[in-house]
Amino acid sequence: MSQPGGTFDIVILGAGSGGYAAALRAAELNLTVALIDKAELGGTCLHRGCVPTKALLHAAEIADQTRESEQFGIKADLVGIDMAGVNAYKDGVVARLYKGLQGLLKNDKITVVQGAGKLVAKDTVEVDGKRYTGRNVILATGSYSRSLPGLEVDGKRVLASEHALKLDRVPSSAIVLGGGVIGVEFASVWKSFGADVTILEALPRLVAAEDEEISKAVERAFRKRKINFKVGKPFEKVEHTENGVRATLAGGETVEAEILLVAVGRGPTTANLGYEEQGVTLDRGFVITNERLHTGVGNIYAVGDIVPGLQLAHRGFAQGIFIAEEIAGLHPAVIDEAGIPRVTYSDPEVASVGITEAKAKEQYGADKISTYNYNLGGNGKSQILKTQGFVKLVRVNDGPVVGVHMVGARIGELVGEAQLIYNWEAFPEEVAQLVHAHPTQNEALGEAFLALAGKPLHSHS
Ligand code: NAI
């Protein structure tokens, strides 16, 4: 017999970025919340995604800087990568943030429930025989690492990203299946740590969701870093060899390595959770909602990676806040998916907001848009850092900038200004008036806007 667990303003199933953000905002708005998760609070991003991978990428940057220190006149030898030390640093970062999050969620208004929940009625989630009833329910169950039919992830030779994050050694060689965000980030880390890396990507280019010129720049940089990649051919199969794996591509070409990382996308975690039984519409596993994130069933909302679109933690945060405010009757503005900033933290980094040149041509007509590329060669701070890359602006003629695309070391930090420009629909002439500090990489963005406004300083128009 199931017992009552309590009645709340909101019952949230899943305490990842989307779920916990909804809980925190709801509590601020004096709503009572049950926040249910079978694993640790913080979900994929904190424990198995964004945070630990970025710690690895930072360690990778230090390895590269040590290796290349001579070009700055500093003599240093890279004697090795101590993976136990790298993992201790990475785990320490996660542990501190986890502790902080637990502290934030210790709120009178939030009841944290540990256990696997299932939607058993339109307003009820059951956990270990206890029923938590909500005047509103938020589905926030996140995503898992997908694989391909017949490709078995064993966690030893064939890994998903959660296994790759826990490796206790640097592999001598690695195949990375998928040249999307996870693929290029891990390829970048392992190369910096000294592994021989080959990326296999079915689409014609790496980071294929980005503007085409950005892909070209990443490919150029990866070639220079001697990261191998094969694009345009789908993967066919993987076999175990004596000491590792052999991957075969369509057409028969093979690549061998010690391990293979599967990075072909993440699927929504929505199976066997009672969603369909309660009438929630799923499309290939994703929960279909309206633009206000309502499922159309009872008072059930959905947030984060289970909702079709960008699978990014900060999108989850924004959606979680949105739903809490919606439930509180604050009528928040709908989130513009294109206005969500995107950063890939490989070396070089990629950052973008808005739409690509190809998409803009499709949307506005080829003769209605113009683009401008500002090369980091003209940017003092980028020269100091010895990085190459550019800032590309896509503008509707006589209108606002609808896409900002950037590539280069540390360029991800520039996305803050880029997203303000995009989301405020700023005209180049308006941005050109703003003073950018010298010498910063941020200035590259300012220079690009000066040029687009017809008054370039350190570039030719
Ligand atoms: P993804 O969708 O970015 O890339 C997967 C890639 O695998 C695609 O380019 C696809 O063409 C390729 N692929 C699929 N089937 C293939 C096949 N049979 N043979 C060869 N290639 C094949 O997905 P990814 O990289 O796994 O990341 C999952 C999610 O996690 C993404 O939505 C991403 O946004 C998010 N994420 C975000 C990060 C960030 O913001 N920095 C970091 C890591 C992940």
From TrEMBL:
Q: Where in the cell is it found?
A: Cytoplasm
Query: Any idea of its EC number?
Result: 1.8.1.4
Per UniProt, the cofactor note for this protein states:
Binds 1 FAD per subunit.
Disulfide cysteine pairs (residue numbers): 45-50
Family named by the database record? Belongs to the class-I pyridine nucleotide-disulfide oxidoreductase family.
Q: Which domain of life is it from?
A: Bacteria
Gene3D superfamilies, A to Z: 3.30.390.30, FAD/NAD(P)-binding domain
Q: What Pfam families does the annotation carry?
A: Pyr_redox_2 (PF07992), Pyr_redox_dim (PF02852)
A Gene Ontology biological process annotation?
2-oxoglutarate metabolic process
What gene makes this protein?
pdhD_2
Pyridine nucleotide-disulphide oxidoreductase dimerisation domain boundaries: 340-448
One GO MF term: dihydrolipoyl dehydrogenase (NADH) activity
Add the further remark from the entry: The active site is a redox-active disulfide bond.
InterPro entries (alphabetical): Class-I_Pyr_Nuc-Dis_Oxidored (IPR050151), FAD/NAD-bd_sf (IPR036188), FAD/NAD-binding_dom (IPR023753), FAD/NAD-linked_Rdtase_dimer_sf (IPR016156), Lipoamide_DH (IPR006258), Pyr_nuc-diS_OxRdtase (IPR001100), Pyr_nucl-diS_OxRdtase_dimer (IPR004099), Pyr_OxRdtase_I_AS (IPR012999)
> Which residues bind FAD per the record?
54, 117, 141-143
Tell me the ranges covered by the FAD/NAD(P)-binding domain, including all copies.
8-320
Which PROSITE patterns does the annotation name? Answer: PYRIDINE_REDOX_1 (PS00076)
Which NCBIfam families does the record match to this protein?
A: lipoamide_DH (TIGR01350)
| Keyword check for Chloroplast | no
Q: What is this protein called?
A: Dihydrolipoyl dehydrogenase
Active-site residues (renumbered)? 438 (proton acceptor)
Q: Which reaction does it catalyse?
A: N(6)-[(R)-dihydrolipoyl]-L-lysyl-[protein] + NAD(+) = N(6)-[(R)-lipoyl]-L-lysyl-[protein] + NADH + H(+)
Which keywords has UniProt assigned to this entry? Cytoplasm, Disulfide bond, FAD, Flavoprotein, NAD, Nucleotide-binding, Oxidoreductase, Redox-active center
